[in-house]
Amino acid sequence: MVIRSAIEGSSRMRVLVVEDEVRLASYLKRGLEAEGYAVDIAATGTDGLWMATEQTYDAMLLDIMLPGMNGYKVCEELRQKGNWVPILMLTAKDGEYDEAEALDTGADDFLSKPFSFVVLLARLRALLRRGSAERPPVLATGDLTLDPSSRVVARGGVQIDLTPREYALLEFLMRHPGEVLPKRDIIEHVWDWEFEGDPNIVEVYVGYLRKKIDVPFGCDLLKTVRGAGYRLDPSNG
Amino acid sequence: MVIRSAIEGSSRMRVLVVEDEVRLASYLKRGLEAEGYAVDIAATGTDGLWMATEQTYDAMLLDIMLPGMNGYKVCEELRQKGNWVPILMLTAKDGEYDEAEALDTGADDFLSKPFSFVVLLARLRALLRRGSAERPPVLATGDLTLDPSSRVVARGGVQIDLTPREYALLEFLMRHPGEVLPKRDIIEHVWDWEFEGDPNIVEVYVGYLRKKIDVPFGCDLLKTVRGAGYRLDPSNG
DNA sequence: CGTGAACCTGAGAGAACGCTGAGAATCTCT
DNA sequence: AGAGATTCTCAGCGTTCTCTCAGGTTCACG
Fold this sequence. Notes:
The structure is a homodimer. Chain A is α/β, with parallel strands linked by helices. Chain A has helices spanning about 20-35, 45-55, 70-80, 100-105, 115-130, 165-175, 185-190, 200-215; strands at about 1-5, 15-20, 40, 60-65, 85-90, 110, 140, 145, 150-155, 160, 180, 220-225, 230. Chain A has 2 domains: about 15-130, Rossmann fold; about 140-230, Winged helix-like DNA-binding domain superfamily/Winged helix DNA-binding domain (Arc Repressor Mutant, subunit A, Orthogonal Bundle). In chain A, strand 7 and strand 8 (about 145) form a beta hairpin. The longest helix of chain A is centred in the C-terminal third of the chain and has 14 residues, at about 200-215. Residues about 1-10 of chain A have low confidence and may be disordered. Strand 1 of chain A pairs parallel with strand 1 (about 1-5) of chain B.
């Protein structure tokens, strides 16, 4: 069975997600589609293998632990058939399955759970970029710039040091400039997909970010929209 | 089998509402149809599951507490069958049912009762928009503009700050320009659908809005239609 | 012109919301 | 192991928002 949520005529990147855990699958589908990818889901290894051979995808997210046929096997068989679609493997943290083994079987990259969505996107972009020899564009909002490839953030030429979490938050905001982003969405993207802590964490990190990107420059790029979320506002340089 | 969640400009979006409480179901049907959606109703979980598999919907509103088969189960079975129609779950506030669990079973989003219709519409639009990578259009009435994605309201280029409630009210009015909207309808859409307070609340908030969007500009966009309701009048710039 | 219904508005209580500093827990690197 | 960086939790605080209420104003109509 093939399930496609496709928009005909558009040239969106197509991604196949092979994941049996419904919640994670649904989360990945939601998040990736919001980023403009066309996403198909397969719940078992055999389904995934079949879909990957029947259709053409730009990339594949492949869980290792799958019912029926595990991720290694799927990867191996695909490569044997001469299918070299870029594969990003999702490995559990507990070490039962090995990351080296993932690469052995022909995976291009791996990501260990739990991961934040922003990190997943970064890896996926890197995979898709490969072969096209394109460097990711530098993000800019006002005089604030962020270079995803070097992870350098600067404001008006002055480089700014950020911690990983601060960086992930800023990258997410800068990829949606001018948009109001609810705390809920921010948590889903910047923290683990199943983070269940206090949304206050967002307020805290917004505070940290402001201290580094706004306060020293005496302005107010990162706005609070009370009752709705936060917004990176290009208008106020 | 190919299932497509297509965005078709020409035909109306089809929404399946699975809700046993007759009054709420009827309210949702009326409200959504007024917004241009084609709405089907299922009163039990089994009915809902059957309709969702037989027909193709663009989205699904799914109550959790249902006779026969609860919302979690419906969602789970649909996902198992490979049906990834966007699902917005309606959860009761009392915490007996968990929001995390809703996402566990593969729901795309959830909304806890009581909710305002404007919020429901916003979430529904977000679900439908997903995958089309389109930003919602800016609403405009005369020289008054409202951008749902940035939540920015402006009049003749001058930005206007609104509280969440004021914003919801204005958005509702601006989605029905030139129409006379009875207080009752406004309460149903902008407040809870079973709000039972004083209708005076509408007068109060209309007053707040006027102070921000009309008074400073010396005109009268937001009209009172005595005995009938309120109207946002594009003619009077 | 008087009357009642509908509408407007200012004041204020209580709740919700967001910000912040302190400090605990965890991670990283030497 | 130890130092420092980073992440996260928590409680307190001030602000903002929501909603109610009571009294005032406007309007339609007899």
